């Protein structure tokens, strides 16, 4: 009997997000872009049947786990985020905005790895080899074990991997490399999938740790199809304000380590340097009495960071007063202002309120609620908080102060930086930290009273 004939099936795929539909439409219903749907054809036939087994399954206890141990890169802050270093065969996607410093960081990682005696292949598809050479000279990243290739064709990239046989592969970036075997321009859904699949296949087959650079969209998410993040082993976000030297790397996905760690870096004209103790960047003057400021300690993974919250309250000539935030959640601030009005009697309806953090830090955890509340009340009363005071706690709608995680680590960091008083939630197992006097508060009224004791 002749084999069943294969049927041709036509669909339309969005080049921006990868969404597909059976018929063409002018606007993608998934991402909202216009004119991005292109026609694609797929051949459907009989289902795949089992083939001859080539590699039998192995008992899990017989698997050698030593081959997957992480190897440090020499950049301590980057190793912290990765969970110890680079795992052989692991594919890492580093995403960030243009100009944030991704290439500078990876060039530093490549040079440090090359100086340890390992071979590194750096493939640049966005810049010429001369441009990368000038940057490497500026930041001191020149080494004979670091090989540089400027290619935009996937076949040539794989040929360079065969010729160099590197111990570390860096591809900058996945959206600018294209395969001649796939239709579409570089950066399209089909091209990104093909390039990522080919690079991942080579990395797994040869146990080469690979770092791939990815672009981001306007909302900060990784550009290209969502499957790109599922294919790789680690997804890191490179964050930073263009007007600040501080840069942060966060692990969004990590198959080999924690996903709540953050690495801090200082980016300058001479390169990028890890910051083992970045707390000072987020404080203005610890011993300066200024109304409308309060210090808190947040946890980024297992790392405590002391941050300063600043609040400014001024009379408003507007019918709808301004509520402007920088570094804090605006909806969280609105809730705290409502609590201050209801439980502390603060009249804020006719005032413009500005709340910001120092150093461009972003505070998202609820543990900073109490610091925002006390900073705002200090600005309303024009009365500075006593020197050496920090505030920790989540504020509830009923005016209660809720407990926070990692209280001992937060207090230890505050004591190390010279703070002497801590307003914290009431608890039966408050940790005792040398040099810190803890003032327990059950409600926001208790916290405000303790603030000026």
From TrEMBL:
Residues 352-453 are annotated as: Lon-protease-like. A motif (RadA KNRFG motif) lies at residues 253-257. ATP binds at residues 96-103. The keyword Transmembrane helix does not apply. InterPro entries: AAA+_ATPase (IPR003593), DNA_repair_RadA (IPR004504), P-loop_NTPase (IPR027417), RecA_ATP-bd (IPR020588), Ribosomal_Su5_D2-typ_SF (IPR020568), Ribsml_uS5_D2-typ_fold_subgr (IPR014721), Rubredoxin_2 (IPR041166). Keywords: ATP-binding, DNA damage, DNA repair, DNA-binding, Hydrolase, Metal-binding, Methyltransferase, Nucleotide-binding, Stress response, Transferase, Zinc, Zinc-finger. GO terms for molecular function: ATP binding; ATP-dependent DNA damage sensor activity; damaged DNA binding; hydrolase activity; methyltransferase activity; zinc ion binding. One of its GO terms (cellular component) is cytosol. The middle region has homology to RecA with ATPase motifs including the RadA KNRFG motif, while the C-terminus is homologous to Lon protease. Plays a role in repairing double-strand DNA breaks, probably involving stabilizing or processing branched DNA or blocked replication forks. DNA-dependent ATPase involved in processing of recombination intermediates, plays a role in repairing DNA breaks. Stimulates the branch migration of RecA-mediated strand transfer reactions, allowing the 3' invading strand to extend heteroduplex DNA faster. Binds ssDNA in the presence of ADP but not other nucleotides, has ATPase activity that is stimulated by ssDNA and various branched DNA structures, but inhibited by SSB. Does not have RecA's homology-searching function. HAMAP family: RadA_bact (MF_01498). Belongs to the RecA family. RadA subfamily. This is DNA repair protein RadA. The lineage of its organism: Bacteria, Bacillati, Actinomycetota, Actinomycetes, Micrococcales.
């Amino acid at each position: 009997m002749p084999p069943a004939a294969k049927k041709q099936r036509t669909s339309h795929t969005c080049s921006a997000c990868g969404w597909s539909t059976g018929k063409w439409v002018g606007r993608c219903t998934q991402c909202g872009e216009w004119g991005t749907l292109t026609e694609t054809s797929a051949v459907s036939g009989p289902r795949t049947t089992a083939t001859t087994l080539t590699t039998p399954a192995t008992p899990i206890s017989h698997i050698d786990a030593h081959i997957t141990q992480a190897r440090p890169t020499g950049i301590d802050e980057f190793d912290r985020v990765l969970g110890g270093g680079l795992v052989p065969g692991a594919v890492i996607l580093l995403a960030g905005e243009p100009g944030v410093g991704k290439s500078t960081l990876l060039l530093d990682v490549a040079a440090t790895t090359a100086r340890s005696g390992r071979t590194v292949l750096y493939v640049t598809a966005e810049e010429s080899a001369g441009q990368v050479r000038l940057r490497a000279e500026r930041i001191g990243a020149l080494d004979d074990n670091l090989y540089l290739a400027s290619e935009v064709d996937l076949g040539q990239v794989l040929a360079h991997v065969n010729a160099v046989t590197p111990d570390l592969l860096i591809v900058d970036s996945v959206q600018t490399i294209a395969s001649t075997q796939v239709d579409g321009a570089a950066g399209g859904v089909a091209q990104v999938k093909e390039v990522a699949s080919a690079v991942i296949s080579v990395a797994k087959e040869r146990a080469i740790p690979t770092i791939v650079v990815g672009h981001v969209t306007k909302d900060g998410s990784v550009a290209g199809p969502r499957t790109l993040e599922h294919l790789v082993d680690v997804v890191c976000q490179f964050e930073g304000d263009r007007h600040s030297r501080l840069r942060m790397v966060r692990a969004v996905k990590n198959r080999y380590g924690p996903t709540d760690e953050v690495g801090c870096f200082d980016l300058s004209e001479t390169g990028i340097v890890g910051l083992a103790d970045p707390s000072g960047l987020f404080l203005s003057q610890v011993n300066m009495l200024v109304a409308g400021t309060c210090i808190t300690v947040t946890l980024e993974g297992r790392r405590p960071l002391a941050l300063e919250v600043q609040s400014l309250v001024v009379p408003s000539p507007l019918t709808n007063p301004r509520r402007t935030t920088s570094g804090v959640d605006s909806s969280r601030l609105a809730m705290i202002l409502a609590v201050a009005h209801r439980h502390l009697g603060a009249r804020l309806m006719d005032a413009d309120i500005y709340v910001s953090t120092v150093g461009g830090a972003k505070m998202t955890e609820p543990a900073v609620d109490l610091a925002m509340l006390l900073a705002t009340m200090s600005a309303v009363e024009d009365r500075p908080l006593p020197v050496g005071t920090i505030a920790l706690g989540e504020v509830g709608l009923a005016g209660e102060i809720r407990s926070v995680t990692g209280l001992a680590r937060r207090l230890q960091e505050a004591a190390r930086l010279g703070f002497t008083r801590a307003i914290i939630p009431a608890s039966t197992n408050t940790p005792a930290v040398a040099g810190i006097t803890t003032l327990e508060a059950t409600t926001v009224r208790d916290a405000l009273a303790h603030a000026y004791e």
